[in-house]
Specification:
The protein is of the alpha/beta class. 16% of the residues lie in helices and 27% in strands. It is built from 8 helices and 33 strands. Strands 1, 4, 5, 6, 8, 9, 10, 11 and 12 form a 9-stranded mixed beta sheet that branches.
């Protein structure tokens, strides 16, 4: 009988609605990051670097690109006969087919998968954070403390603590209480949504709470274990950890990669980040072009000037175009003679000649000011921007647009231009 010490369950079904049109056609963990990666590469690479060779990836929303990216796990050395990586979508049952309704419900629906490895421990991860973490060290802590549940926490400024699930611990790091987004936090240890369970404890908690609507770890499973007086411990993590769930945090995390001494280093030998790479020619930087403090993916051709930006693979930037503080994802074509300021441009976009973005004063977005903010211009994937138009700040464009969509060749700050049928 197979027996694995610890297997990982990676929750990658999130829609990531706060990323706006970037996740209209793709699950958040599959969004491009850092010029050549996708967000899910980070937890997957952490698994293989931590010696975990059995990972179940639970998908749900728009899973196609995620499934294609993961494939049989070759880039992460997870193509194993026993274990390896398995994509676990919700499946049709003979009685009633059901979507995953909550984080713990997704795990509950895959009990048979976990049981087949007869693990001692199960590691639960989210698929949408940027960080490097050795889960082996967390497991050692779990064993040492005799814990049944260990929750990874990180200290946050106390004034920000009300945005998180907060753990209250004693001197031995045992969790005595927890609060979900408390008004007056009693601690600054925020849950990172990373858990190690002893399999027996997890199994019992899932079966006992199976009928809870929207079965969730924070709302149901952890409180149940606490109530049963299972030993719960907080494992404190002090490394770099970024939730890239909003356009602004996504933009900031990309920009931090190009700091002179990046806090998050993609170039470390001993903790590599693996990804599925296409076979592309080397990058080409033309004679009269200029690139400063930027990451440029392979297969990209630059004929203009690029400052402080993250450029993906297979991108073309036309002659005399100036790109500043922007993120341009794979296989996007930017015409000549344009100007891009603080733009996030998704994959396979075509931008005509002479297009200017991020121009003018900053006004709140008219449709979703909480998403499209901080002066960022957001362009959804496969969009087409006709030549010669100017686009303001806090704007969003999605779809194949024509000159007639831009009165006087201008889309003002705070405007939303989404062509019908493109957001479905």
């Amino acid at each position: 009988m197979i027996k694995k010490e610890m297997i990982a369950m990676l929750l990658a079904g999130g829609q990531g609605s706060r990323l706006g049109v970037l996740t209209s056609k793709v699950a958040k963990p599959a969004v491009a990051f850092g010029g050549k990666y996708r967000i899910i590469d980070f937890p997957l690479s952490n698994c293989i670097n931590s010696g975990i060779d059995t990972v179940g990836v639970l998908t749900q929303y728009q899973p196609l690109r995620l499934n294609t990216h993961i494939g049989i796990g070759i880039p992460w050395d997870l193509d194993r006969n026993i274990g390896g990586v398995t994509v676990l979508p919700p499946y049709e049952k003979s009685v009633n087919s059901e979507w995953y309704t909550g984080t713990a419900n997704a795990i509950y629906q895959n009990m048979d998968y976990m049981d087949s490895f007869n693990p001692e421990y199960v590691l639960i991860l989210g698929g949408d954070h940027i960080y490097k973490m050795d889960y082996e060290v967390m497991l050692e802590f779990h064993k040492e403390k005799g814990a049944e549940v260990t929750i990874a926490v990180m200290p946050v400024p106390i004034e920000e603590a009300k945005r998180f699930g907060i753990m209250i611990t004693d001197n031995d790091k045992q969790i005595t209480d927890f609060e979900e987004k408390p008004e007056n936090p009693r601690s600054n240890l925020a849950s990172m949504g990373i858990y190690i369970f002893s399999w027996k404890t997890l199994k019992e908690a899932l079966l006992a709470n199976a009928d809870q609507p929207g079965l969730d770890f924070g709302k149901h499973i952890i409180p149940y274990c606490h109530q049963r007086q299972a030993p719960l411990f907080a494992y404190e993590f002090n490394g770099y950890w970024k939730d890239v769930g909003t356009l602004e945090s996504y933009w900031v995390a990309n920009m931090e990669l190009i700091d002179i001494v990046p806090e998050f280093n993609l170039y470390e030998e001993y903790w590599k980040i693996y990804t599925k790479s296409e076979i592309l020619p080397p990058q080409y930087i033309a004679d009269d072009s200029w690139v400063e403090r930027s990451i440029v993916g392979e297969g990209t051709r630059i004929f203009g000037k690029v400052y402080n930006s993250v450029i993906g693979c297979g991108v073309t930037i036309g002659k005399d175009t100036v790109v500043r503080d922007s993120i341009i994802m794979n296989r996007t074509d930017i015409g000549a003679g344009g100007e891009l300021n603080k733009a996030i441009i998704a994959e396979n976009v075509t931008v005509g000649n002479g297009v200017k973005m991020g121009i003018g004063e900053e006004l709140p977005n008219e449709t979703e000011p909480h998403i499209y903010s901080h002066g960022i211009v957001t362009i959804g994937e496969k969009s087409v921007i006709p030549e010669g138009v100017t686009i303001g700040k806090n704007t969003v464009v999605f779809g194949v647009t024509a000159a007639s969509d831009y009165p006087e060749a201008y889309l003002g700050s705070g405007k939303t231009l989404i062509k019908a049928g493109d957001e479905s």
